């Protein structure tokens, strides 16, 4: 594209939570957006909501499906094909059980989505970034990628894998001048716990009860900050928690 063109941001998991809030702040600042997820109704709503202010293209694919990932990204129209910023955000926890009680299907989902999905999307986006000598990848990790908590076993392992991939990608892409960094949130009130507890709204709500959790917008703002630093500044690894949270298991409910 031309020099004056606004950069394009590719966001996975844009239909909800952190990804949606990230889409909204980049839209506000006029960035082109490629917004991804599986829920077509939400993708359509986002296109309508954000498309009046900036150019928006939506892609419906499951990050677990490597063929679908490749073909969705290959299908991008010319105006959206030069991705400057990739936000690897799609992901969830599925279940919260001891290792002896955990479900193999839940384990597959977390490893396939949070780890392999991030790899498939990165693999499809990188050739153009390398050819264009321009790119910034933000990996959404978690405090669960920095410490393990009881019954967090496989989710924590998947986010520790994201932490390792963030470091590895930074090393390998350094020669191409591509910035790579992670944003690792603590407790953020999104649909995360609804998904983790399979639609049990009451149980999901109790995760964020009695203290002020982070809002998705808090993380969207931080991602925007990270991306808008001058080119020589790469925020490599950032951990952000609610003030009430000191670790995965220590939350001050008296604040
Ligand atoms: P949400 O459940 O609100 O959003 C998850 C997003 O991921 C949705 O847009 C969903 O879209 C997408 N997604 C899930 N599975 C797939 C899939 N198989 N293929 C494509 N897209 C998928 O949760 P959050 O916003 O909280 O989560 C976003 C990221 O932040 C995740 O990586 C999560 O691990 C991480 N995180 C969350 C924290 C929290 O406390 N909430 C804290 C730390 C990290 P759709 O269903 O339409 O496909
Ligand atoms: C989400 C944060 O503590 O719910 O990654 O696992 S936590």
Automatic annotation (TrEMBL):
Gene3D superfamilies: NAD(P)-binding Rossmann-like Domain. It holds the Pfam family adh_short. InterPro entries: NAD(P)-bd_dom_sf, Sc_DH/Rdtase_CS, SDR_fam. The keyword Oxidoreductase applies. Keywords: Oxidoreductase. The keyword Oxidoreductase applies. Belongs to the short-chain dehydrogenases/reductases (SDR) family. This is SDR family NAD(P)-dependent oxidoreductase. It comes from Maribacter chungangensis. The lineage of its organism: Bacteria, Pseudomonadati, Bacteroidota, Flavobacteriia, Flavobacteriales.
């Amino acid at each position: 594209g031309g020099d004056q063109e606004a950069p394009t941001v590719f966001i996975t998991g844009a239909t909800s939570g952190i990804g949606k809030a990230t889409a909204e702040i980049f839209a506000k600042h006029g960035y082109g957006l490629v917004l991804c997820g599986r829920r077509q109704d939400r993708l359509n709503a986002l296109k309508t909501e954000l498309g009046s202010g900036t150019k928006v293209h939506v892609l419906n694919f499951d990050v677990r499906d490597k063929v679908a990932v490749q073909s969705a990204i290959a299908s991008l129209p010319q105006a959206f094909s030069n991705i400057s910023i990739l936000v690897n955000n799609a992901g969830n926890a599925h279940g919260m059980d001891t290792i002896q009680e955990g479900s193999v299907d839940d384990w597959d989902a977390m490893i396939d989505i949070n780890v392999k999905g991030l790899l498939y999307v990165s693999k499809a986006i990188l050739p153009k970034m390398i050819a264009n000598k321009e790119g910034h990848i933000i990996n959404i990790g978690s405090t669960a990628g920095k410490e393990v908590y009881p019954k967090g076993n496989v989710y924590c392992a998947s986010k520790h894998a994201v932490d390792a991939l963030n470091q590895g990608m930074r090393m390998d892409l350094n020669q191409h001048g591509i910035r790579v960094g992670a944003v690792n949130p603590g407790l953020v009130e999104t649909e995360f716990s609804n998904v983790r507890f399979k639609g049990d709204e009451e149980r999901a709500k109790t995760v964020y009860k009695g203290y002020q959790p982070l809002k998705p917008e808090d993380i969207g703002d931080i991602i925007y900050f990270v991306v808008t630093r001058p080119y020589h500044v790469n925020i490599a690894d950032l951990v952000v928690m609610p003030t009430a949270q000191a670790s995965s298991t220590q939350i001050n409910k008296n604040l």
